[in-house]
Amino acid sequence: MPGPTAGAHVHTARHGRQRSGAFVAMAACLSAALVGTSTGHSADAELGRYLSSECTTCHGTAKADSAIPNINGLNETHFIEVIKAYRSKALPNPVMQTIAGRLRDEEIAALAAYFATAHKP
User: What digits encode the pLDDT tens for the residues 77-87?
Assistant: First the structure.
């Protein structure tokens, strides 16, 4: 049986109300998007790029002999582990603890996706 089409109405058993097909389609798309981000399987590298400006303020100037590491090209899994360690204060660095403490898991995953493919400017 095919799903509802735009303009069709769907009867909901819980409230006995009808919902338009457009509403149902929009809800399905939103649900699919939320499932993708909550599982971490489709981290948004574009969001990571947007969020990266605070990171690149310090890490963008990193040199081989610098105390600040170059995070461009860093493995996603490693990046996530390190940022979460700063967030939980398992790694000592007050600046990184503060920055990581403001990040949600989705934002950390997005940053990891971005920096995994980023190249030093």
Answer: 999 999 999 99
Q: What is the pTM of this model?
A: 0.64
- Going from the C-alpha of 98 to that of each of 2, 26, 45, 91, 112, the distances in angstroms are 51, 37, 22, 12, 18
Give me the residue label for tokens 């600046």: 95
The string of pLDDT tens digits covering residues 67-104 is: 999 999 999 999 999 999 999 999 999 999 999 999 99
What would you report as the CA-atom Rg of the chain, rounded to the nearest whole angstrom? 21
**Residue 109: how many CB atoms within 10 A of its CB?**
25
Contacts of 56 (CB under 8 A, 6+ apart): none
CA distance 19 to 25: 10
